[in-house]
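User: Sequence in, structure out. Go.
Assistant: Echoing your sequence, followed by the structure tokens.
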Amino acid sequence: MSPSSPLSSSSASQSTSTGDSDVISLEARNKLYSKLLSDLLLELVKDPNQYPKALRDICKLVNPKPEWQLRAALAVLCDHRQSFFPLVHRKLGDNALHLPRDVKNELMHRIGKRQYQCNQPQHIDIVYTRLVAWIKTQTSQNSDSDTSAQPLSTQDCLDVVLRLILRPSPKSPPPLETRATRQQLVQAFATDFRGPALHNLLRHLKVLSRHSFNPIPPSKSAAGIPSRPYYAKVVSILQSSGFGKTKLCVHLSAQQAGLLVCLRADDKAASSVTSFPPQDEKIYGLLSACSTAFADVINNVDRKNNDELAATADLCACVTLGCFLAAYCHVLTDKLTKLMRLSGCFEWHHHEQHPQSKHATPGMCWNSIVFALSASLHRKSTFVGQLKLKADGMCRTSALFSHDLIRIDADESPHSTTPAPDLSLYDQLPKDLKLFVDELRSPDTRDNLLKAVKEEADRLLPEAQQLKSAKDLAQGLVKPRLSQLERLAPSQPDDNSTIFFLALDECSSISPILPHLRRLWSFSQPQRTWIFLIDTKSHIPPLAGSEALSSSRLQFGTGTHQIAPPFTTMPLDVHHSPEEAAKLQSDFANRSCTARRLNLLIPKLGRPLWNDKQFYRDEHGIPKCHHIISKLVKSNFVWQWPSDLDKIVDLFDWDDDKAAGDRDFQNIMALTSQRVPLGLSCNAVKRKWQRFAKDQISNHLRVVSKVHPQTDVVESHTNSEPPLGIAAAWSFRYQADRIKSKWSLAVATVIRAQNAIGLNVGLEGEEGIHLLCTMATDFAAEDKYQNDYESVGLDDEAEDHAAKYKCTMGLVTVKDWLDVLIGSKLTSADESNAEADRAFDAWCSQNWINFKQIGDHDLGRQVKMKRKADAKETDGKNHVDGGDEDHNAYDKKASGGREHDKDAATSLDRGLLANFWVRHAAIRGVSNQKGWDLLIPVYESTEMPIGDEPFALERLSYIAIQVKNTVNAPDFPEQLGPDLDDIVDSIRTTSCLELFLDLRGPITKAHSLLSSAEPANTDANIARRVRYNIYVSGLDEQSYPVLKRLDELAKNMTPTLFGLSSYGTNQFDHDFAHYVCDLENNDDKVADRQQLDAAEGKCPLIQGIPMRNPPALLQRPTNRIFGTGQSKRMRATGQDDAGLSGELQIKRLKSSPA
């Protein structure tokens, strides 16, 4: 290595330090390093990855390559699984003692007195940032010296890249903004832990405990016992970020004895400002060194040819883990035993000062001990000083209160008071308990406990090294200490109400040795002690997938064991408390609930994260959309939508793997999935699906619903989370001049995803219509709020609160939305009824849409598609006297006051519509339900309903949409949407809109409108109901003008979303159907029908077998009434086809005066 290398130093001050090795001159050390680089290059030349060329390309100072190309090259070099890093690791390790100090300081770290180990490669984002900075520095130096840049030798390039990749991040004090952010995280962690998550987890464990946990497979399956017992009491807690998985385990420790240990990797610990708690360095150092050493051996050894070395590495990993588990059980037993002595609650540890005192039940005495330990560990300035822990029933005569080790806040146990402390008892304690009390009062209690675990593990190491197998380690080292811990439990062995636990947070940092952990724990045969594996980055295979099964040495092929199912059921909406719910109900009853009051609920809905004050404005209740989006999209800087068409072209030029792994692809899919639910096909190539699903769960807040360990199939979805939906909509909208390009990118990305990850966009057309409807709301918002968007800009802290609030809520009228979606021209199905047309215009102008995402609800099965007029007359006879109670019109029951339980099956509760209105969501219908596919809540108001006007449930209605995507004429149902609850208001008219979208209908006809009043109610006080029906035929720019707003390339791709290769395919299907219907020979018609059935994958019928009802022949598509566009229902109103086909009346929807 020449002294002029860009990153080396030949300063005499870098002489070797004594004690590392024999004295060798600096020049000799530099020569050794230079030879090491030369030898390394000789081996790299042989590698098919062409590493030398990649090194030279990365270090070019003139005309550097685009970012994505540099990142692609760096990705291979930074990946410890590729051949580059293991080779570097081996070469450096072999020559560590004789390398220059600057090389060791930058590329290695000390693990012993004379032992060094190669650093782990830094994250690619860090390396790329370093590379850009280095290029700028070199370019600047050349510019200052007026010399042209000289290309580096390949050897110098290797030196540069090694230092960029392996140099550890400096551990400098965090900047002020980082400290403030971390303080916000601590404050958020200190808040109440609400919701049923603790109950859900304990219930999950109780269900698992009903079955056998046995490392030895049963010889025969006995009745009532599973043939495959669970392998180990190890449960993964899998869920995307923001649900409070870590906080769950901390709060669990206040009710069940255990501890959470954070194993966040060094690179994340140094740079992360969005995670809490910090890394537990002592335990992480112990386990990460074990994991790295094991991975190094396994990655560089061919197991088939070197079983002995692989087995040694396995045993070494088990030794370290065995020492750690045994030490944890020992230290936890010691702390709990001393607390039992200190409490005076247990008969074999009665306090001398209270020999005759009456204590509570053993369970309550135990709860006191567990709570005292948890509070002593966590309620400290070094963790969370103001942490709110919920106390379970405790013994009030416990001496732990006297020693001030238990303090219960009023909101933690509102019906209990904390006994006053009596600090004089401290002087009467034996010396060991005095020291123990001092330790519990120390601010470093938790750190000291973890230090004790590490020291005990080191002490046990010689003993563990004498044991020759994982089973021996478990039985001889771990199990005796585990049994001592479990004997402390006050409950009987068959009672699972008392548990112990160890939670390993961010455990993917030690993923190579997680199978060893599971194996050791299985052989230790715990009765009531669980290990929880938690990770924000949900690397599913090592935690709960097939990799966990196979690498734990389970006999998977013969099916002798099963892995414990992971816990995923973390609750939503936990910050909307029962007290707030009661207040909200009271406000509705008093008609004092305003639209603004409902919008203030938004931060309380969804995952608990959104209630942190960093994500919304406390005084205005406006979500901070860019803060929220920063959690949804992945980037090391503020992510921006790509430029217009360039990215679309790039997506289709890339291969599937590159597209699926692209950052922009993942971010756009995450944003679009928050707006419209997109199904992920389980038939996708496993590797592609696994990669995409893991990334969306880990980095883009997609929710895990279920994991199937045997197949690595993950069921996941996007819940309706109003803060996320509003923020995602804001991402599409806030640059009004770019909405077109963003939606074009979104459409292209969804279409590209069909091949890249096996996305299922639905051949029936529902998903395509969902996209078009959502797109129409954004374009309508662009037209309405363009000036406001410009004044607000990107700033979450914009001072114009009114404009910011209005833009964020983003309501549009039904008229504006319809004009964008299907155009402003309709064909009236009833020319003579001009009054109905004017009423429809007014209704569209005074009804508002606020949906920004589409959510799921089992509404289609809960509400029968049946008119109330058809209900039994007895329903109307059950009259409930409203009396003189102060009820509003909506509170009174339908049809003169029919009981709600008899009316619920045939009408839609407006309260359900209000739920989705508050969530800014439309409702997606369930598969194969009768009637509507999409239900959009609307609200009637002359002004935008976001202010301080009372919010009235009776003003809610809906738009129901049904989608048909078939060549044959579809049946128009009697009604698309459900009946609404009746309103006691003689002068009000309740209206709803139904859209029947016939995607494969003729495209040459205008949309037709029909207004139909429902049969009059027997009670004259009930509001009249009117249904407006619009029939839309075809799929092109004429039928859906919203398509004109897309870029040409994206617009031409759109038919793919509806199961068509192009717009022209639709016409071919019609022509083919006409051709078949024109055939005179029935045998030919049957043959062509069979051809269509075969194309659709239907089973053909065997000719010659008698049938009473032979299948119908293909129907002529013109049964749709090509001339007028009328549906069958519209024809039933008495309109003559011929009478309307000659002259169509075209009307434009106009806004009525407010």
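User: And one key feature?
Assistant: The longest strand covers residues 989-998.
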